[in-house]
Amino acid sequence: MTTNHYDVVIVGAGLAGLSSAAYLSSKGKKVLVLERGQLGGRAVTLKIKGFNFNFGAHAIYARDSSVLRTFEKELGLNIDWQDFNPTKAKYDIGDDLTAVPSNVQGLFQTKLLKGIDKVLFTFEILKTMLKVEKGHPHMSIQKWMEKKQVSEDVQDMMLTLASSNFFTREPEKIPSDVFFTYYSRLFTTNKPVSYIGGGWQALINEFVRVIEANQGTIMLKTKVEKALVENDRVVGVVTPEGEFTADEFVCCIPPKELVKVFAETRLEHAVAQHAEYEPTVVMVYDIGLKERIDVPFSYIYDKQNNIFITDISYYDRTCVPEGGQLLQATAYMRQADVGNKEAAEIRKQEIENLYDKHFPGWREKLVVPRVSARAVVQEIKWTMNQKPMPTFFPDYRNLFFAGDWCEGQGQLSELSFSSAWQVSNLILEKDK
Q1: Is the pLDDT of residue 26 over 90?
Q2: Can you give the residue ranges of every domain in the chain?
Q3: What are phi and psi of 246, to 5 degrees?
Q4: ∠ CA(417), CA(423), CA(426), 5° rounding?
Q5: What would the pLDDT profile of 243-299 be if each residue is shown by its tens digit?
Q6: CATH fold match for the domains 99-188 and 280-378
Q7: Fewest CB within 10 A of the end CB: N or C in the chain?
Q8: Which one has a higher pLDDT value, 46 or 339?
Q9: Where are the alpha helices (DSSP H) in 102-168?
Q10: In this predicted model, what pLDDT tens digit does every residue of 27-58 receive, in sequence order?
Q11: Which residues are in the Amine oxidase domain (predicted)?
Q12: What are the strands, taking DSSP E only, across 290-427?
């Protein structure tokens, strides 16, 4: 058994772990990253027959105010931004297509609302943009709309927007303050959605480049079996390769894994109370085509069935062989249907029906399909009865937590970046 001491040990090499490791090492910290699997966590890119399949779309929301943009500037990351075109985003409303109101222009073009309802909805969005309406952490968006006596059509529009951006079939359960904070950013940004050229792998490579340039260490296939806790401090972690001690520890693995790491320590109960939650689960059905099927949109959302298709290759040409096309369909899953083979098969058929409707001839051009029947797009689902994990416990000041299950800004990957940014700066402030 070997013992090595570091300034900071980071457990987990997902987006949160890699971004915090890159930032802390760039500030002179001696950093060690321990990862039991592969780099990137759930944010990985898989190459099959010339197509780069991402585990989840490599989309960054409101990138001009994103924490990833801050990391990009601070660390000199080389990111090939591919910005989403809102005019090519459509809702499938049965026998017609209409604009997605993801910005002010879309609000005025959409057919989902008419007359006074469009004015009322625009007014609600305006209040959000001006931060007049902030919602309440103890009131769901459904309860908020009922209290405000919002009309049914406007309610439907707000819940549709929430569903398509929070990856949930239960948007009515989202806390109203989370809802309004999110849309305040989305409607005031100049870059509502952006993709990363080269997918998640390109971003992961950049973080690794910075870590290695600053003498940071990354150990893969190294599972942290338990933490060593003395009084109010974590003093080390145990792996099959040896014990590693540090001044500070950042845990970037889900709470359900943390429970095992902190079993039989003073921290076990504190961690366990954050481990009972339901993740946001979707079915992802990607198809790689040998030839493009040209359509007048790059994003289509089937409002009735809660399924959307994104033409990933429209924004990122590096993910396909020459002349090819990569389409990604995402279908929201009900919690009761997760793990149900019959329900999964029905959902798969619904996705294929949507492909048939909007991309005719795809079956003849199909090179490779990839189906993830149970893809976790966010570790914790934002509902009234599920609260995110704090980034630290006040009684344990050398232990921090980061990831998309933690408190932070935005949704999805932005939660990983924002929580990583917060804990990194908390650690650096100790030197002042």
Answers
A1: yes
A2: 2-46+63-79+198-277+384-429, 99-188, 280-378
A3: -160, 165
A4: 140
A5: 999 999 999 999 999 999 999 998 998 899 888 877 778 899 999 999 999 999 999
A6: no
A7: C
A8: 46
A9: 104-109, 115-129, 141-147, 152-166
A10: 999 999 999 999 998 888 889 999 999 876 67
A11: 15-427
A12: 299-302, 307-311, 325-332, 366-378, 392-393, 396-401
Residue 114 backbone dihedrals phi, psi, to 5 degrees: -135, 155
Please, what is the Cα angle at 388 between 206 and 200, to 5 degrees?
20
The confidence score (pLDDT) of residue 39 equals 94
Rounded distance, CA 285 to CA 56, Å? Answer: 10
**Which tokens belong to 117?**
């309802």
Both tokens of residue 225?
């079996």
Give me the percent of the chain exceeding a pLDDT of 90: 50
- Predicted local distance difference test score (pLDDT) of residue 1: 44
User: What are the E-state strand segments in 189-241?
Assistant: 193-196, 217-219, 226-230, 233-239
Burial of 98 (0-12, 13-18, 19+ CB in 10 A): middle
Could you tell me the fold of the domain covering 280-378?
Answer: Polyamine Oxidase; Chain A, domain 2 (3.90.660)
Side chain identity at 50, as an amino acid letter?
G
Pick the CATH number of 99-188 from 1.10.10, 3.30.9, 1.20.120, 1.10.405: 1.10.405
Please give the mean pLDDT across all residues of the chain.
85
- Amino acid 104 reads V
Q: How far is CA 116 from the centre of its chain?
A: 35
Strand 81-83 and strand 45-48: the pairing is unpaired
What is the assigned CATH class of domain 2-46+63-79+198-277+384-429?
alpha beta
pLDDT of residue 14: 95
CA-angle at 193, arms to 70 and 347, nearest 5°: 130
Q: Please state, in angstroms and as integers, the Cα–Cα distance from residue 148 to each residue in 40, 139, 220, 247, 272, following that order.
A: 43, 12, 52, 50, 37
Question: What is the C-alpha to C-alpha distance for residues 129 and 184, in angstroms, rounded to an integer?
Answer: 5
